[in-house]
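note to self: dont lose this again. the chain is below, predicted strucutre after it. 365 aa total, dont forget to put it in the shared folder this time
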Amino acid sequence: MKAAVLTDFGAPLSIQALPDPEPGPGSVVVDVAATGVTGYAANVFNGSRNYPLELPVAPGPGGIGRVRATGPDATRLTVGEWVFCDPTVCSRDDAARPDTILQGWTYRTEAALPLHRLYHHGSFAEQMLVPTENVTPIGDIDAADAGRWTAVGRLLVPYGGLLAGDLRAGETLVVNGATGGFGGAGVAAALAMGVRAVVATGRNVRALEDLARRFGPRVRPVQMTGVEADDRRAIVEAAGGPIDMVLDFLPREATASQVLAAVLAVRPGGRVVLMGGLRGAYGDLALNYNWLMHNDVTIRGKWMYPREAIPRMVGMIRAGLVDLGQFDLTEFGLDEANEAVAHAAANAGPRQLTVLRPERVGRRS
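---
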């Protein structure tokens, strides 16, 4: 099979021929039809994100494809079936403390290295070996629409946070960092779940206005200034009532005060879910013990999503609650993998999808 391979951090991806994967017990081989390219892929590949990866590797977390072959223990999957490949691979020998990798992306801890070596290559390839439990049928689709279906991977991350926070229909949500890819998808997922309003925060005015224009009056944009008290006041005013939940997706470049502006706006008894990227000293929130206790506020972190979220998200798309047409799509052939990475970095945003199509030659917007 042909694959785009990362041989050294900082080097461009090279197109190589790799052995075709073979399924065994507990695994499936998928013909990759489309895979998303994240806006920060360039930082993973140049090493600045410090994601552990054993090189060489065909990168790429998850994707859309068709089952090519199954292992002997598969009971429902059929050859040719359209599926979503979940990159979150968990070890099977300790249910209480599973080690995890993102296939083709990072193995996170040394304990997870055996998983990374077994399910080594990701979706920047014509074929991919995937654990059976990581393959979810999505129903029949037109092959031309496979690129648009890669949005499932983006939607699932904030959807996992919304489920963790027990978001309910009729509630008011703040998406802190709504102008990024996951934050913008969180707005779409929350609206599909029936929220009364989403307060969408960010610094990019044009992106905020685009979210409000596309999704209508339930989206309340708030441009953040970096002044904590002013930003909190603006969030509360935009909500027009109690704020039940905050979903934070602020990036590494943000500061703790930007997180606190939203967190401290939540109502007594409210919930906060942290899924962003703050690091180091910027990640120290220094929340007041008395405020947390007396206001009965729940704060939790969440990484990725539960597996049952995948068929539920597919169901919301099939029901028309989530419109994949909201995403602006640019597709590249596998031979253009480096151009796709550059394009994704230059066009990161709440509605932009950059996609690799391994079976296609040439760019298509």
